[in-house]
Specification:
With 122 residues, this protein is mostly beta strands. Helix content is 0%, strand content 52%.
């Protein structure tokens, strides 16, 4: 089993920045992928970014490319999402997730955190 705990969400003004963190515990076998998704009220869960276990592959959704950056620290079992130039449309619950392969759909991911709320005021 893998457990994921997100932190770092909060209230920020438009144009501001936040850095989300996700702590992974439990055993992972072989290579794996960590990703960030978000879900706004009344909307489907949306892929944001992913990074493979060794950092060799990084992908971003077009909606956040150039504003968000995903990184990881395997020694600390952490993955981060640096979010810059935040907009009110970025308001959502943000989730980290783990998968055994590269994918951008929620069903591709096996484990999920509980989420952290990000609210961007105009």
């Amino acid at each position: 089993q893998v457990q994921l705990v997100e932190s770092g969400g909060g209230l920020v003004q438009a144009g501001g920045s936040l850095k989300l963190s996700c702590l992974r515990s439990g055993r992972t076998f072989g290579t794996y992928v960590m990703a960030w998704f978000r879900q706004a009220p009344g909307k489907e869960r949306e892929f944001l970014a992913l990074i493979t276990w060794n950092g060799s592959t990084i992908r971003y959704a077009d909606s956040v490319k150039g504003r968000f950056s995903i990184t990881r620290d395997n020694a600390k079992a952490m993955v981060y999402l640096q979010m810059n130039r935040l907009e009110p449309e970025d308001t959502a619950v943000y989730y980290c997730a783990v998968a055994t392969g590269v994918g951008i759909r929620p069903p591709d991911y096996d484990y999920w955190g509980q989420g952290t709320q990000v609210t961007v005021s105009s």
